[in-house]
Amino acid sequence: MENRETGVRICATHGGFSARDKQFFVRHLVAEGFIPERYRWFSGERGKPSSGLEWCVEDRSVNDLGVVMLRSRANAFMIRLIVCASILWLVELGCLFLNRR
After folding, report:
1. 3-state class of 5 per DSSP?
2. Residue 69 above 90 pLDDT?
3. What is the structure's pLDDT at 38?
4. How many CB atoms lie within 10 A of CB 39?
5. What pLDDT does 89 receive?
6. What is the DSSP track for 11-72?
7. Which of 57, 51, 14 is nearest to 35 (CA)?
8. H or E segment at 4?
9. Distance set, CA 85 to CA 34, 42, 73 (Å)
């Protein structure tokens, strides 16, 4: 989000926001003091003349590679964690059965 004298620019990573979602988000930004009070009654409709609010959707193709890498690292970590926990559990079971004799 960029707050300038000429208006406010809000960038999103995807464009799936309805007019109602935009309206609630803008009201929240106003209530928190991030943008001026004059935007409180923003309607979120595209057909209205420019109100000083600009919505942009950033290109996700740049971020997709980073997300894929993070997800693959997280998956590898979880697999190692589950394998190690299973081995530890088997060792504990073995110790319990050896101590019973």
Report:
1. coil
2. no
3. 83
4. 18
5. 97
6. EESS----HHHHHHHHHHHHHHTSS-GGGTT----SSSPP-SEEEEE--SHHHHHHHHHHHH
7. 51
8. none
9. 46, 53, 18
Distance CA 89, CA 83 (A): 10
d(CA 26, CA 64) in angstroms, rounded, equals 27
pLDDT digits (tens, 9 = 90+) for 23-67: 888 889 889 988 888 888 777 665 454 577 888 877 655 556 677
- Residue 86 or residue 9, greater confidence: 86
9: helix, strand or coil:
strand
Q: Are 35 and 29 in contact (CB under 8 A)?
A: yes
Return the amino acid letter for 39. Answer: Y
Q: Are 56 and 8 in contact (CB under 8 A)?
A: no
Residue 79 pLDDT > 80, yes or no?
yes
Per-residue DSSP letter, 10: E
pTM comes to 0.50
